[in-house]
Design goal:
Elements: E1 3-7, H1 14-24, E2 33-36, H2 43-59, E3 66-68, E4 85-88, H3 93-102, H4 105-113, E5 118-122, H5 124-127, E6 157-160, H6 168-177, E7 181-184, E8 190-194, E9 197-201
Parallel strand pairs: 1-5, 2-3, 2-4, 4-5, 6-7
Antiparallel strand pairs: 1-8, 8-9
């Protein structure tokens, strides 16, 4: 059963945190997390990565149980199979998809998702598992010249993180052209996907 928790900013509120803990269903001190900061390249983005990690530590996840993967070399499924969560941070969605493909981590995530474990996305990390990453085009620079924008297709909806009223015309326009349902998420919302069923958490 595929379990995805797709967010704009991580554990933004208690309901998202509760959902996170409920899905994993083991004592916090035993939760093991693969933490992927690769999409973040600027200082500002890296600041958010630090915040994400601090959220996990503040929750009670042990530092020794968080393994950081930078996607700078090929990744095998064996490296992640004993973990409970793959947590992919935000940043540049195009760069993230490129690195995920280059390291074979795309196949690892898909395999991991089949084993009843949780995939947790933040911003770019949430867009990554959708059918495509086109929604990032108005917001992220495609400075890696990615032409194939196919995502990992673990859900059949497209999430648009950090949604706010000013973006309504952009998102409405995108919805008209998209063959998939588009789910805008504010910074306080998440989309829970359990075996194809979707539910907004806020």
């Amino acid at each position: 059963m595929t379990k995805l928790l797709l967010t704009s900013t991580g554990l933004a509120n208690q309901n998202i945190t509760n959902q996170f803990l409920q899905i994993i269903d083991k004592p916090i001190s035993q939760i093991k997390i693969i933490f992927v900061p690769t999409a973040s390249r600027s200082e500002e983005e890296l600041k958010y990565v630090d915040e994400s990690k601090k959220e996990l530590l503040d929750l009670g996840v042990l530092e020794n149980n968080i393994k950081t993967l930078n996607l700078d070399k090929p990744i095998s499924f064996q490296e992640v199979e004993n973990f409970d969560v793959i947590y992919v941070c935000g940043g540049n969605t195009f760069y993230l998809l490129k690195k995920v493909r280059e390291t074979g981590f795309d196949k690892v995530i898909i395999e991991f998702a089949k084993t009843d474990k949780l995939y947790f996305g933040v911003s770019a990390g949430s867009i990554l598992v959708c059918p495509n990453i086109d929604i990032a085009s108005p917001f992220d620079e495609n400075d890696v010249n990615l032409t194939d924008l196919t995502g990992l297709n673990l859900t059949d909806v497209i999430v648009s993180p950090h949604y706010c009223e000013e973006e309504k015309p952009i998102i409405d326009n995108f919805k008209k052209k998209s063959q998939y349902e588009v789910v805008p998420l504010t910074d306080n919302q998440a989309l829970l996907v359990l075996d194809g069923e979707t539910k907004r958490v806020e």
